Amino acid sequence: MSQKNETPILLLSLLITVGLIAGGFWWFTRKSSLNLNQINSSNRENSPSLADLPQASSGEAGDKTFASVQNIPTGLFNYGGSTSWAPIRLTVDPAIQAARPEFRLRYVEPSAGNPGSGTGIQALIEGQLAFAQSSRPILDQELRRAQQRGLTLKAIPVAIDGLAVAVNPNLNIPGLTITQLRSIYTGKTTNWSQLGGPNLPIKAYSRLITDGGTVELFVQNILGGQAFGPNVEYVSTTTQALQKLAGSPGGIYYASAPEVVPQCSIKPLPLGRTQGQYIAPYQEPLILPSECPGNRNKLNIEAFQSGKYPITRNLFVVVKQTGQTEQRAGDAYANLLLTEQGQELIAQSGFVRIR
Fold this sequence. Notes:
Elements: H1 3-46, E1 75-81, H2 86-99, E2 103-107, H3 117-125, E3 131-134, H4 140-148, E4 153-167, E5 176-177, H5 178-185, E6 203-206, H6 213-222, E7 232-234, H7 238-246, E8 251-256, H8 257-260, E9 267-269, E10 271-274, E11 277-279, H9 301-306, E12 312-320, H10 325-337, H11 340-348, E13 352-353
Parallel strand pairs: 1-2, 1-3, 5-10, 6-7, 6-8
Antiparallel strand pairs: 3-12, 4-8, 4-9, 4-12, 4-13, 10-11
């Protein structure tokens, strides 16, 4: 064959070869692209979304027993504060000591003044305590005092409490509004007949405002910051007040609900925000003193948890944010109380679970 005839054949062969290569490349890349898309689609379908991923636990919320709580420091730690916490100290703290013997606790009373939330927080600021127990939030002036010492305070809520009003068991009155209670303790209402009761002088009892968080809370939330009236007689302890109340036909007193509701010698009084719409701090029906101590009144847990009862509050562990062992001790104590075991023991102490 001549060279002249071979040239077109060579060109045609070259074109066919290039076409085959190009076609093969196109087919391969298309197939690969399809496979890649299928793989990515499959990965998207099989991969969990952010909502499906396991979430980190919040602190010690998942712990059920004292034994399961982590980061418990070893040593002896002083603490103090609110007298309203006394039932918790009596019930919960021994159980903590039994389960965690390395975490030793010692309740310390103030060197000056009476035990209470305020004196406990002050002692904490001054470095006398590892942590404090309070029946009210931290006050602004306490935060300022702490800041002056280069400290930050944190209040960790661990239980729900409320204030209960007690009267003589023979006093016939269905309940009081918050306004009427304020009027009694500021001295504007002095006879029960002014409130639909018998013609009987009102004898109001209270601890001093310097004695603790319960009185401070009462003055701020119920009296609106007003001073006590001249008709108020001051007592040093709730025990003394209840003894006086039992012998005073027109007597009235307020304290932490677990200290009042189960008592046999007095009558806890329903309270309301409006006239006639009263909520009892106890589970109805009322157990009369004649049936006590065989039966005792119990806290109205539902009303406290829902906020229907008009005077509720939290109990707090107050901790200094120092990053030192004392902060670990305060955090550990709060975490222990927030376990399932701690909350159950708090309920057994007469308070209401916060979780």
